[in-house]
Amino acid sequence: MDGPGWHVDPQHQGGQRWWDGQGWTDITRVPALVDAKQLDRIVHQLSQIRIGVTFLAAVAVLGLIGGFLAAVAGT
């Protein structure tokens, strides 16, 4: 067994139990669905997507404005 920390609870499937380095304690928990590192990665990816979508929207708006100005100048 590894050092002290949260490990899969051998008595309750789906839970975790604290191993103190020598034996199991009575402290249990339900593991988080997403750990902090995964959450940070997800937030970062969503931020990158938001930046990309904003850039594409800005390019589209500028294209529409340019097209409108070209049409007005041509008439």
Produce a short descriptive summary.
With 75 residues, the chain is α+β, with helices and mostly antiparallel strands. Helix content is 52%, strand content 19%.
Outline the structure in words.
The protein is of the alpha+beta class and 75 residues long. It has 2 domains: 1-31, no CATH class; 33-75. It has 1 helix and 3 strands, in the order E-E-E-H. It has one helix at residues 36-74, and strands at 5-8, 16-19, 24-29. A 3-stranded antiparallel β-sheet has the order 1-2-3, with no helix packed on it. It is rod-shaped, with a radius of gyration of 27 Å. It starts with a strand and ends with a helix. The model has no long low-confidence stretch (mean pLDDT 91).
Mean pLDDT: 91
Shape: rod-shaped
State the low-pLDDT regions, or none.
none
How many DSSP-defined strands?
A: 3
- Give the strand content: 15-25%
If strands are numbered along the chain, what order do they take across the biggest sheet? 1-2-3
Number of helices: 1
- Decide which structural class fits the backbone: alpha+beta
First-residue to last-residue Cα separation:
80 Å
The radius of gyration is 27 Å
